[in-house]
Amino acid sequence: xxxxxxxxxxxxxxxxxxxxxxxxxxxxxxxxxxxxxxxxxxxxxxxxxxxxxxxxxxxxxxxxxxxxxxxxxxxxxxxxxxxxxxxxxxxxxxxxxxxxxxxxxxxxxxxxxxxxxxxxxxxxxxxxxxxxxxxxxxxxxxxxxxxxxxxxxxxxxxxxxxxxxxxxxxxxxxxxxxxxxxxxxxxxxxxxxxxxx
Length: 197
Fold this sequence. Notes:
Elements: H1 16-46, H2 52-74, H3 82-91, E1 97-105, E2 110-118, E3 122-127, H4 135-148, E4 154-158, H5 161-169, H6 184-195
Parallel strand pairs: 3-4
Antiparallel strand pairs: 1-2, 2-3
């Protein structure tokens, strides 16, 4: 009997958004409960709210606040489905890299992309589910990011799945590489992961 392998989706993988939302809720609830228990125990044991357990309770509020912030950041977005991912991978040119459930952050805001397809010379994005910003804003940010980091890739961001599939079908294939040969996609993907929430 084969056990179904269960992988934890990381940045750029399908299911990442849903996983982060669930994890943030669990951490927030756990941290809040632990802080409340420590604070009450401190009151009971030391008969004062100024005690060592109250200090620990206050410190536990930091991960609670981080989890709440992360949940609020991810709340409006939804993960892509397996069916959508299959369509994008099938339409993508040979040798390209596909990132899914991407939330890129800037000092001003977070921006959701359902998919980003990276080839040797192009980067194409699909506006994420729940993203309120227009595709042109996501395009401008991604184009500016690529330019600031010194990449000459052309950039396109679309807000319709059918148009996106048609567009990535026109992108050029990336040639097969030897093991020691430099891959121009790797640097772009690594840079994008740095900016992902």
